Amino acid sequence: MQKLLIKGKRNLSGSILISGSKNATLPILAASILAKNVNLKNVPLVKDIFTMIELLKFIGIKIKTNKKNKIIQLKNTNKKINTLAPYKLVKTMRAGVLVLGPLLTKYKKAKVSLPGGCAIGTRPVDIHLYALKKLGANIKIKDGYIIAEAKKGLVGNKIRFPSISVGATENALIAACGAKGKTVLTNCAVEPEIIDLISFLKKLGNIIQISGRKIIILGKGLTYKKVSHKIIFDRIEAGTYLIAGALIGQKIVITNVRPSIIKNEIKILRNIGAKIIVKKNAITIIKSKRMKKISVITKPYPGFPTDLQAQLMVLMTQTKGISKIKENIFENRFMHVPELKRMGAKIEVKNKVAYIFGPTKLTGAEVMATDLRASVSLVLAGLIADNRTIVNRIYHLDRGYEFLENKLRKCKAIIKRV
Q1: pLDDT of residue 120
Q2: Sign (positive/negative) of CA torsion 122, 327, 258, 170?
Q3: How far apart are CA 272 and CA 305, in angstroms?
């Protein structure tokens, strides 16, 4: 099993090109089931994307991947589509359930395995199923599979989500594009990745309006033309490297970004004490010598993302005083805490709140990744720790970070995979 070896206490400087968004690419790949011919650019070369590609190939879609130029071409001209998403292809990736909506709306049936992914909480698919039932689907769960059918096709409806869910919003949004009539979704997630999905769906000819947390969809049937789409930048990757710069950066320039999308994260890092210079498509960050404590609550966008909580916690170990993080999204999102404590961090968790005491000297240790974002938090900790840090189970990292070691090495980090 592969692991990362990190030698800490190296000041980082250099430039990091941010990849396309994994969390935008996955629903857009699923939505490509609706189209005949799709050309996607700026696609991140990470494990979850290749898993989704394998799933779409299994369904019957022809796919060509140009890794050098980060382009994926999809053709759906197969008349014998397989409306099954098997356990073996969904078990490692939460986003596998996103093929449910497009298969159901286009082929009037789907059998999709209950999903896997990071073990950071229950994340039930109840809200997905609730929305699809409102569109007229008959759904049952049997032997670990969601079995859905809409013999006469889906029909538009008014749907209010009982709680804000990114995946359920995406599934309902895609499904509504093939439904008859108008669909009105309220209490929606409005993450930038969903806005990117809407941009893609509009290119297919759908009429979609968004106002606050309300989305109105007028599906235009399913005879879609050839479309080309460039994936938005990965704001979580950008946030991760900004935090690395705040931790140990002499001067790090983050490129291929839209700073307006991550203005909340920039504000928080400035409040801690990092010096940040924002330009049109780039952000420069310089470590502060005096970092202040801060309190943060994870919330749906535009609030602070749960996917950056573990990384920010590492930065909080270096701030003066007691910092706090309240985790409002996932109940098991503090699994990185025991590993950070093994490196010397002083952290207490009570209910949904982590109290981080700083500044604390971290020392290299052998640690184990438990999920995607926890694993990168251990890499960040290793960058500032004394001696050598060994991060095990880095297959989690490969699910969502493209060329992590290469990007850090270009900024003078000492890090290698063995």
Answers
A1: 34
A2: positive
A3: 17
Amino acid identity, position 196: D
76 and 217 co-located in one domain: yes
Task: Judge whether 169 and 185 are in contact, CB under 8 Å.
Answer: yes
Residue position matching structure tokens 């008959």: 138
Decide: residue 23, CB within 10 A, 0-12 exposed, 13-18 middle, 19+ buried: buried
Q: Among candidates 65, 19, 56, 49, which has minimal Cα distance to 35?
A: 56
**Residue 216 in tokens:** 């109105």
Domain span holding position 342: 3-19+233-417
| 3-class DSSP state of 362 | coil
What's the CA gap between 178 and 104, in Å, rounded? 9
Decide: 369 and 341 in contact? Cβ < 8 Å.
no
Other CB atoms within a 10 A radius of the CB of residue 89 amount to 20
Burial code (b: 16+ CB inside 10 Å, e: under 16) for 283-312 equals bbbbbbeebebbebebebbeebbbbbbbbb
Tokens of 40: 């996607």
Same domain for 359 and 221 = no
Structure tokens at 302: 């535009």
pTM across the whole model? 0.95
Q: Which helix (H) or strand (E) holds 161?
A: none
The dihedral sign for the CA sequence 412, 49, 266, 118: negative
The token duo for 217 is 């969809």
Distance CA 250, CA 149 (A): 57
Distance CA 317, CA 311 (A): 10
Q: Which amino acid is at 332?
A: N
Q: What is the CATH number of the domain that holds 401?
A: 3.65.10.10
Do both 287 and 148 map to the same domain? no
| DSSP secondary structure letter of residue 302 | T
The candidate with the shortest Cα–Cα distance to 148, out of 140, 156, 159, 158, is: 140
Which residues participate in catalysis according to the annotation?
118
Tokens of 305: 């993302």
26 in the same domain as 11: no
Count, residues in the chain: 418
The whole-number mean pLDDT for each consecutive block of 10 residues of the chain, a chain of 418 residues, reads 93 97 97 95 95 96 97 91 92 87 96 66 76 96 92 96 95 96 97 98 94 92 81 97 94 97 97 95 91 95 94 96 91 85 96 94 93 88 96 90 95 96
Structure tokens given for 250: 């002499």
Could you tell me the two tokens for 67? 């890794």
Edge-to-edge order in the sheet of strand 346-350: 295-297, 321-326, 353-358, 346-350
